[in-house]
Amino acid sequence: MISRWTVVVDRDDLTRTEVLHDELPVLSDCELLLRVDLTGLTANNVTYAVVGDRIGYWQFFPTDAKNRGIVPLWGFADVVASTVDAIPEGTRVYGYLPMASHLVVRARLTHGGFADASDHRAELPAVYNSYLVTTRDPAYEAEREDLQVLYRPLFLTSYLLADKLAEDDFHGARTVVVSSASSKTAFGTAHCLRGKGVRLVGLTSPRNVEFTKSLGLYDTVLTYDDAVDLEPSVYLDFSGSAAVRETLHARLGEQLVKDVSIGLTHQTSSPDPRSEFFFAPEQLRKRVADWGADGFAHRTGDALKAFTTEAAGWVAVTRHSGPDGLTDVWQSVLTGKTDPAHADVITF
Ligand SMILES: NC(=O)c1ccc[n+]([C@@H]2O[C@H](COP(=O)([O-])OP(=O)(O)OC[C@H]3O[C@@H](n4cnc5c(N)ncnc54)[C@H](OP(=O)(O)O)[C@@H]3O)[C@@H](O)[C@H]2O)c1
Q1: 133 CB contacts (<8 Å, ≥6 apart)?
Q2: Are 41 and 106 in a shared domain?
Q3: DSSP code of 100?
Q4: Quick one: which of 283, 44, 23 has its CA closest to 154?
Q5: What Rg do the C-alpha atoms of the chain give, in angstroms?
Q6: Are 166 and 96 within one domain?
Q7: Alpha carbon of 144 to ligand 1 centroid (Å)
Q8: Is 323 among the domain residues?
Q9: Domain range for residue 238?
Q10: For 276-304, what is each residue's pLDDT tens digit?
Q11: Cα of 266 from ligand 1 centre, angstroms
Q12: Based on the domain organization, do 126 and 220 belong to the same domain?
């Protein structure tokens, strides 16, 4: 029997965590046992928990513990037991992983590796169910796994969001206003929009102005209390703050040609009919259809490598380990205590 540890959070009070232990059952046919090895943890994972009930993020890794949830993370895992010849023990994969030492998946083979075909994941977006074997993955860089677990899931959204905006010719605007400009997904988007003929205005908290300016990605960096210029603008909302949205709508009026909601770093979920939600898997499906699965993997892989080369100089990475290290990082990211110039990865 293999023992597993799992960190669960209280769905009604995300600050309350607990470490549970259980024994893993023997594998059935088509099943693989993954040993989680390395993950990132950023505001994005907190958002999964904030909208866990509404969007279904608790369903990926269900738990019997009453009113508890397992927060999904992105990272690397190793196959430590297998009933599938094509995916032997020792295979390393990148994908969506629980806050737990182990994960059992029911493997359905795919071009890049396998998907988890478990019943409880059947209705969830395919991109979250896919596990990529590192040796077949054009975006994989063995010597940069730390940066990959941090940036890869976020940068894909940045890339697809920038791609969609350019495809829509920025809805006629030439200024893009970005909230939570110091967040990795926001500055990844700014990186992708550089040189596309738009002025990039980053909005951030006073304490993060210096860091956001130091990135050199935004043409202008303002605090949330500063007034933006009156000109046709698209708003990319990574903060989810109703107050910031209200201020922008009041200031820009008709000049605000599009209000796109991407994130909730401020952890309040208040959908607004004036705002259109950007869901990356939709644009991903479109581009896979346009470019083919290989074409998509190579284009986004090349873009990610170029981005992480630059981002390595912007954010220093600290490693933590085990359930206690994971819990500490969760508390610090949840309470917004992290400095954007530092990021945390966890070895399990
Ligand atoms: N729709 C999608 O497909 C998709 C995909 C990826 C990410 N996202 C979303 O994008 C957002 C950014 O994610 P990330 O992982 O890139 O973030 P991150 O790098 O961890 O962002 C950190 C920044 O978020 C703000 N922040 C964090 N915690 C806060 C708190 N408790 N209170 C107030 N502000 C806080 C601060 O920025 P400021 O001071 O600059 O506000 C902070 O510097 C998340 O909400 C995430 O879910 C959406």
Answers
A1: 87, 91, 92, 93, 112, 113, 114
A2: yes
A3: B
A4: 44
A5: 20
A6: no
A7: 22
A8: yes
A9: 155-280
A10: 999 888 899 999 999 998 999 999 999 99
A11: 8
A12: no
